[in-house]
Amino acid sequence: METAVKRLYEGLFLVDSALAASQWDALMGAIRKILDRADADVVSLKKWDDRKLAYEIRGISRGTYILVYFHCDPLRIGAIERDVTLSEQILRVLILRTDRMSQDDIDRPTPAEVHPESAAVSDEHEHAPVEEEPAAEEAEEPSDEPSDDFSEEEPS
User: Fold this and answer.
1) Is 150 within a domain?
2) For the sheet containing 41-57, what is the strand order?
3) Rounded to an integer, what distance in angstroms lies between the CA atom of residue 76 and that of residue 82?
4) Which pLDDT tens digit goes with each residue over 121-142?
5) Quick count: other Cβ atoms within 10 Å of Cβ 83?
6) CATH code at position 64
């Protein structure tokens, strides 16, 4: 029997924010169970962020993203995605192969770890408008000094 090569994957699981707040340990258990069923080795599992969804999924408008790094046989990824589809607790999943990611990148803090107070702030404040730089004057006064512009003008 041939031994399968386990590759590093990044999984972003989307769950209902209300469910995440009330049953965090049960959600983590459900995600671990799905990954264990696929014989995946979890490297890191942590909350990524809590966001307002662009559109409702199953009547839910806010979601909590859970970021998971794991080693798994590439042939088992389909089984993980199928188990997520059948799960009532997990709304969506995105799994990407990320072999070139270093341990430092994996350990990098998530938005929820960097700004823990932003989870309580509404999304209106998260996406504050960025102030634009004042426009530079586009038309300059012509001068008699020679310019660095070497383009030739055609005589009229």
Assistant:
1) no
2) 41-57, 60-72, 7-16, 90-97
3) 10
4) 434 434 444 444 444 444 445 5
5) 18
6) 3.30.70.60
